[in-house]
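Section 3.1: Structural characterization of target chains.
Under the original work plan, the team committed to producing a structural model for every single-chain target entering the pipeline before any wet-lab resources were allocated. The record below documents one such target. The sequence was received from the expression subgroup and is listed exactly as submitted; it comprises 426 residues.
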Amino acid sequence: MFAGIKKLPIFAAENSSWILDESLKSNFLCFTLCFFLSRKHPINNDLPGACIKFGTMTISISKTSLLNKLQLLSKIISSKPSLPILGNYLFETKEGRLFLTASNSEGRIMTSLECISDEDMSVCVPTAILDGLKNLPEQPLNIYINPNNKEILIKYSGGKFEFMGYETVSYPCKKEFDSSDCINTTAEEFYNGIAKVVNLGAEDELRPVMNSVLIEASSKTLTFVATDGHGLGSFSCKKESCINKVSVIISRPMASILKGIVPASPDDLQIKVGADWSVVTVNDFEISFRNVEGRYPNWKAVIPHNNPLELVVDTKQLIGAIKRTSVFSNKSTCLILFKADHDRLVVSANDLDFSTSAEETLSAEFKNDEFKIGVKGSLILEMLSCIDDERTKLTFSQPNSAILIMPEKQLEGQELTYLLMPMTIQ
């Protein structure tokens, strides 16, 4: 496939011009024309001084730029797509830019980069191109595409690889929707909001509203919320992000994809909210997703505002103690016991079925008498890992009431709060 045309002995290449035996010139001109027309892949790789392309489309592009874009787009491509064509990238060239698209049934990502192309074209490219590019050093690439059967040849310094592309007719079109509501923020604020709460969402497909992230915007604040019914995370930043109150619910898988694509940078980010679909635009990326239908729970009603007991402890020390003691906890419940008493916190766990236990004592600030409460180790670790402050504040009321977890010092203009429901101590 795509083999080059071998030079004939009577041909000579001098200064990119052909010199023929005059007595055979007419016969060989006819022969050469027939030869080119009969070739299925008429790309000449052997002739010196020129690269002859006949019936093909060519894209010249940087390897690193293309690989970086494809790696980000691959996050949305499912290993078992609902449509076979969704297991491919969509390549489109237009006005000196290569537009790359990847989709699944819940969303679509589009980006672009500069390239040199012969003409406008489109082709579906299998994800195998990603594996082929990973081990190549940075260099210009030439991509040749046969418009008749979509065969693709990628040439680089010292080698090439080939594979089949596909027609774009069956690739889903971009969703068109009316957007009357818009949220304006920065990429950094959006990234922080998603990253702080996305792991608190449920993983239950039967409850799609709980398996999601809520974004609420008003004229004064922008808030991100996620909950699975046992824990809740809320991240708010004070800023004027929109005129009217706007909310949108993003599925947890799409929120995780957005977290992996949106950079933590000061670049402007815009969310256009539609009735069924919404789109996030940042830099040269456009990420559209299907809105989760349903009403989000009234999360503000469950947050206590008057917990009288307050515990302050070093964040890293608490994370380390929970990780070590949870090894010896019951594997089905992951129950961790907190016992606070004045200037110390005892973290312990046990598994009665296997007669194992562990206990650690940490320095802490607690101004009350002994207080015991049980928590789920894996869930509180998710919360503590998102707290950047050196010290964490936990507030309690009763052993069976919600715990509030937050940084001791909130960043200016931001408020991060986690709610954790306690577990019964046996």
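The chain has seven helices and 29 strands.
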